[in-house]
Amino acid sequence: MTTHNDDVDWDRWPIVDYLAENYRDLHPSDAAVIAHHSAFYRRLAPGSVGRSVEFGAGPNLYPLILAAAVSRRIDAVDAGAGNVAYLERQLVCGPESSWLPFHALCRRLNPDLPATLAGALAHVRVMHADVRELAPGGYELASMHFVAEGATEDFAEFADFCRAFVRCVVPGGWLVAAFMENMPTYRIGPASRWPGCPVDPRTVTEVFAPLTRDLTVTRIDTDPTLPDYGDSGMVLLTARAR
């Protein structure tokens, strides 16, 4: 049977295992994403974006750090209670030291970032909500990382998430995203199973081309330093909403 987003209990997302497998060290693939996104953010003036959104934030801090170079406010929106609690702890108690190398690389590639990790995260507001219910046109910029293709096994639902992502920004609003390439259903930690919808640059382009202008889609190869989830790399996107 095909697993859809609403079939999954996102409150059970295995945060400890996910962070241990992916973000306790700065992997080459993350460095490549940060380099790609930093080039995008350097095109925008510091503080020029009043409100941006991290669409399905999860416990990943580096997209929030990147957006702080241009955003006066960043809404980190996630449906999972555990992810929300983790993000709130990072803001209230101070970010874990494992995120310091991510901030250092982000700032080296874009000196417009706040000088400290805490300073970058000071722009963030955490929201416990379903991203599909975000009001249309509520943001000037939207960022999404490994969400639409990891929320469902159904391609039509993947496309629906992508449309909701574009819809949440104003016409002409900025979009930046990363997708796992050809990600199947996968495991995190010793047992937990999560949906995956295999996509590649061609399918991402087909979904976003009618919705956007100035669309660029590229990819990076699979990262041997990460667990083998069955993917073949990452697909990276920048665009503006039509």
Secondary-structure-based class equals: alpha/beta
Question: Main β-sheet: number of strands, strand sense, barrel status?
Answer: 7 strands, mixed
Query: Are there runs of 5+ residues with pLDDT below 50, and where?
Result: none
Strand numbers in spatial order across the main sheet: 3-2-1-4-5-9-8
The percentage helix is 25-40%
Q: With helices defined by DSSP (H or I, 4 residues minimum), what is the helix count?
A: 8
Distance between the termini: 35 Å
The portion of residues forming beta strands comes to 15-25%
InterPro entries: SAM-dependent_MTases_sf (IPR029063)
Keywords: Methyltransferase, Transferase
Organism: Streptomyces cylindrosporus
GO molecular function, one term: methyltransferase activity
Describe this structure in words.
Helix 2 crosses helix 5 (100-109). Strand 1, helix 3 and strand 2 (74-78) form a beta-alpha-beta unit. The chain is α/β, with parallel strands linked by helices and 242 residues long. It has a 7-stranded mixed β-sheet, with helices on both faces. A two-stranded antiparallel ribbon has the order 6-7. It has helices at 15-22, 28-41, 62-67, 81-92, 100-109, 117-121, 155-167, 201-208, and strands at residues 52-55, 74-78, 124-128, 139-145, 169-180, 186-188, 192-194, 212-221, 233-241. InterPro entries: SAM-dependent_MTases_sf (IPR029063). It comes from Streptomyces cylindrosporus. Keywords: Methyltransferase, Transferase. This is NNMT/PNMT/TEMT family class I SAM-dependent methyltransferase.
